[in-house]
Amino acid sequence: KRCQRFAQRKQSKSKKYHSLPKSKQERKLHVKVANIRQDYLHKESTKLVKKCSLIVVGDVPCKLMNRNKKLAGISLDSGIGMFKNMLRYKAVRAGAIYKEISERDSTRTCSKCSEILPRIGLGVRHWNCEKCGAVHDRDVNASINILRAYRASRPYRA
């Protein structure tokens, strides 16, 4: 924070301002934050792979998320793409099944009756199905729909 406060006080056309990204202290800080994030993602992905034999993930387009101003900070800070890569190679190594399934309409499709609602904003965390009256949490409903899509895409085995 100290480095960032120092950078904010400098005027944009001064020599000090342009030399800021090269400061050793700031580079060390960014490396430290990146290492903390990577350590956390490694630990969480390892926990998931040890706990689950089937991992189904939505195909979140990270590059598209980074173009959106509101989602870019969250997407880049959380390391979604890095987490998916870690899950993928750790699942293969552990003998678990890892699949990416299309997330299209997964949040607004009712997991009970498969009714598709009109567009709902990102701020809507809970919603009611107009057809069957079921109450849904946005994320839980999406995960149920993604798992259902995976099961539907698998060839039937007797």
Automatic annotation (TrEMBL):
GO biological process, alphabetically ordered: DNA recombination; transposition
Residues in Cas12f1-like TNB domain copies: 81-146
Region (Disordered): 1-24
Keywords: DNA recombination, DNA-binding, Transposition
InterPro entries assigned to the protein according to its UniProt record, in alphabetical order: Cas12f1-like_TNB, Transposase
Residue ranges annotated for the Probable transposase IS891/IS1136/IS1341 domain, each copy included: 2-67
A single GO molecular function term of this UniProt record: DNA binding
Pfam families tied to this protein: Cas12f1-like_TNB (PF07282), OrfB_IS605 (PF01385)
Family assignment from sequence similarity: In the C-terminal section; belongs to the transposase 35 family.
NCBIfam families the UniProt entry points to: guided_TnpB
Record protein name field: Transposase
Protein species of origin: Spirobacillus cienkowskii
